[in-house]
Amino acid sequence: MKNKRGFEFGFAWIFAIFIGAIVIFLAVYASTSIIGIKRYEEEAATGAKIGSLLNPISTNLEQAKLTTIYVQDETIIFNECESDSMFGEQLLSTSVRTSIGQPWSKYPGPKSTFRDRYLFSNKTIHGKKEFYILSLPFEFPFKISDVVIMWSDTVKYCFINPTSDFKREIERLKLTNVEIKGNINDCSLESKKVYFGGHAPSNYDIAINNEEVIYKLDSGDISVKYVHSSDNNNKFPLLYAAIFSDPETYECQVKRLMGRAKALVTLYEEKFDYLKGSCLPGATSLALENYKIGASNYDDSNYLLNIATLAQEIEDYNDPLKCRLF
Amino acid sequence: MKIQQMAFLLVGITIFFALVGVIYFSITISHARTSAQSAQNEEAILLARKLAGSPEFAFTSSSDCATCIDMDKIIQISDLSGYEELWNMDHVFVTRISPQYSNEKCTRANYPNCDKIILANRSTNLATKTAFVTLAGWDGIINSYRYELGRIEVSSKQI
Predict the structure, then answer these.
(1) Domain total for chain A?
(2) Separation CA B159–CA B40 (nearest Å)
(3) What is the pLDDT of residues B24-56, one digit of tens each?
(4) A207 bridge partner residues
(5) Which of A26, A264, A278 sits opposite B14 (nearest CB)?
């Protein structure tokens, strides 16, 4: 017998399935969008928070400071540097790992832009729970800005045979994830090996000798130059900056610092002109002018040693003045 | 017929949740805007303190006042371009409170016989944050530095 009571797939069923599909699609779409928006919000907040944290860390009292930033979830900080304009730009963004959906968002959160901050680090800093920030004033010979250096709990550094004054400073600052050894073979395997002195063994990552920092990269060796700060209590901000940065970021940030130095020396020239009548009769601003030309011609860190000579001239000129420029 | 009723019910529920979603997002966005503005205001207060310590403001000619602002330096900034962008500020005023000379805006021509140095003034309807500071500058008459009471007013860029 043929069953005449078959299932009728009429308009009502088609309509219900269609509406049901739309409802499910909207629900899935809305929840993924909400998760995406929340993630973007968290990344934006983290980026802005880190940027704001660089502010109070600045050293008004001319002292070095080490601060730890704690994050709730695994985070990547993207440090971008632009040096084209007068003061250049420091761009910061973050990506936060989540347990829902893709662990890392395809694009980082919105970029926070700063023109008066100089963050020296690798282009991406991956931290599980902690980021370390070392802030040091940089004087050349007048204060130019604070140099901010960042690394994280996922990278360890091993300094081999640092010079005695640098070693004293590292010990005083108690840098986290940094160990000092006398022999490169005593360093832990995963650590970044920073060798001080000539004739570096072949398994170094960074070698430092005669105001030059050499990075051993897959693409070949790259070197940058550094100078000492004029502040005798904090002589090594650019050395720290070079060690904890990649060469490209270091060159870009130092170029920005020299842009700031040029703006500051212009300011001191104007101040000199103002004080000339009442306090500096017969004085000339030749040293300032030479420094300004040197800073204007700055292209990469090879120029630093020349400007250091001009900086010393300004310091020698300024120190005995009754109304000092700085 | 019942299935059709169910379908309309589902449509109704969807519209209801969509409306709830719209209200939730408008509240969240408004809250985010308020939080962002409040974070900016906090940053403005911090900036007022930080500005006083920045190399362009700090009085470093003498070691007896580490937190003073160098008036002889900042009067020069008022004529130089690019500094508003450096600090990301819409409004930066430095005003001498005591002793007062005249209420007019300082220029290189009338300095130091004036009280208000305007470094950025892009908008007038901003909630400004104020910090009291000591102003320092060279006085050619007494042949020494003079120290005076002042205040710094700042407000960051509007969102």
Answers:
(1) 1
(2) 9
(3) 888 887 787 777 767 666 666 677 777 888 899
(4) A195, A214
(5) A26
Of A173, A182, A179, A184, whose CA–CA distance to A149 is shortest? A173
Query: According to the model, what pLDDT value does residue A59 have?
Result: 45
Under an 8 A CB cutoff, do B61 and A325 touch? yes
In this prediction the pTM is 0.82
Domain that includes residue A312, residue range: 255-318
Which are the contacts of A263, defined by CB distance < 8 A and separation ≥ 6? A86, A87, B80, B82
Residue A288 within a domain: yes
Question: pLDDT value at position A60?
Answer: 52
User: In a 3-state reduction of DSSP, which class is residue A259?
Assistant: helix
Q: What is the average per-residue pLDDT within A199-218? A: 94
Kindly state whether A320 is in contact with chain B, defined as any CB-CB distance less than 8 angstroms: no
Asked, for residue A261, whether it belongs to a domain, the answer is yes
For testing contact with chain A, the best of B86, B107, B119, B146 (most A CBs within 10 A)? B86
Instruction: Enter the tokens of residue A172.
Output: 């005083």
- ipTM of this complex: 0.78
Under 8 Å between Cβ of B155 and B148 = no
| The Cα angle at residue A195 between residues A304 and A144, in degrees rounded to 5 | 30
